UniProtKB/TrEMBL annotation:
Gene Ontology cellular component annotations, sorted alphabetically: plasma membrane
Family, similarity comment: Belongs to the auxin efflux carrier (TC 2.A.69) family.
Localization of this protein: Cell membrane
Record's protein name: AEC family transporter
Pfam families assigned: Mem_trans
Keywords: Cell membrane, Membrane, Transmembrane, Transmembrane helix, Transport
Organism: Enterobacter agglomerans
Recorded topology in the membrane: Multi-pass membrane protein
InterPro entries: Mem_transp_PIN-like, Na+/solute_symporter_sf
Keyword Transmembrane helix in annotation: yes
Any one GO BP annotation for this protein: transmembrane transport
TM segment ranges: 56-75, 87-111, 117-137, 149-175, 187-207, 219-239, 245-264, 276-297
Length: 303
């Protein structure tokens, strides 16, 4: 049912001929208003919730590092890509669409109790993965890494509306006071829009991308993203004895489709733009099958 909403958004744009300005406006509303409101509302009770096991960060980002290394090796040895292109290729294997897809899917499949662990991953996601990409790209270009690039990355993360929603909601929770009714009701209504609108908007956005070239590279990125990463994150979660809920959260997030930021990075560096766009489209379609399979396997394994 979740992917029907993505299909609806896709059809509205491709068949209904809705202009790009509509999806851009909706995307801005979801990213800057609806999702931050939902995350603020969830995190506003964080101090009263059961503690989130920080080992989920080790499981999720440990898998990101391992899969990134594998992706970079495949890119250089299998497809003969240079260091910058290989870095963006490897990023495609680990950068999940955890905002527009991960949050609503986690909410529906795992329930609202899954959102604090999701939020914890989101807080560090951009900082860690952009730093990893920056180090890889700068090393490929210059053979070194500058602290200036890391500082710019950190500032960008702190200005992100989602991070602002998470951190401000967490800060409010430690005041041990309920939200005023005047704020609580509008937040509740806006938060209820976040999941369905995210999925419809994602479908509308995907309709603007075209599959052009580099299909072998695209399919390889999909394999890294939808098979190797969830497999790796599950293995680390098992090795670290991560609790069931957090284990399901990190595997679910690891199994999400390739995020749009990979395509944006391919445009920025003018490398593998075709494979980046195609992998984003293909992985979103394939994830409609692979993510439920991963969740089913975890249930069968006793999680």
């Amino acid at each position: 049912p979740l992917f029907i909403l993505i299909l609806l958004g896709y059809c509205l744009t491709r068949l209904g001929k809705w202009p790009a300005s509509i999806s851009e406006g909706m995307n801005r509303f979801v990213f800057n208003v609806a999702l931050p409101c939902m995350l603020f509302r969830v995190m506003s009770t964080f101090s009263q919730s059961p503690p989130v096991d920080a080992r989920l960060l080790l499981a999720f980002f440990g898998s990101c590092l391992l899969v990134f290394i594998v992706g970079r090796l495949l890119a250089t040895r299998l497809f003969n890509l240079d260091g910058v292109a290989a870095s963006v290729f490897a990023l495609g294997g680990i950068f999940s669409n955890n905002v527009m897809l991960g949050i609503p899917v986690a909410t529906v499949l795992l329930g609202p109790e899954a959102l604090p662990p999701v939020a914890l991953v989101l807080v560090f996601n951009s900082l860690i993965l952009w730093t990893l990409l920056t180090v890889s790209v700068e090393w490929a270009k210059q053979g070194s890494f500058s602290l200036e690039g890391l500082w710019r990355t950190l500032l960008g993360v702190l200005k992100n509306p989602l991070i602002i929603g998470i951190l401000s909601g967490t800060a409010w929770s430690f005041l041990q006071r309920p939200l005023p009714l005047l704020a609580a009701e509008p937040l509740k209504m806006l938060a209820s829009l976040a999941a369905p609108l995210s999925l419809v908007t994602l479908g509308m956005s995907l309709a603007h991308y075209r599959v052009r070239d580099g299909l072998k590279e695209s399919y390889t990125i999909c394999l890294l993203k939808l098979v190797l990463q969830p497999m790796t994150v599950w293995a680390i979660a098992w090795l670290t004895d991560l609790p069931p809920l957090e284990s399901k959260v990190v595997v679910l997030l690891g199994s999400m489709a390739v995020g749009v930021n990979v395509y944006l990075m391919s445009q920025k560096f003018n490398v593998i733009t075709g494979p980046a766009a195609a992998s984003m489209l293909f992985s979103t379609v394939f994830a409609a099958v692979t993510t439920p399979i991963w969740m089913m396997l975890m249930t069968l394994a006793g999680y």
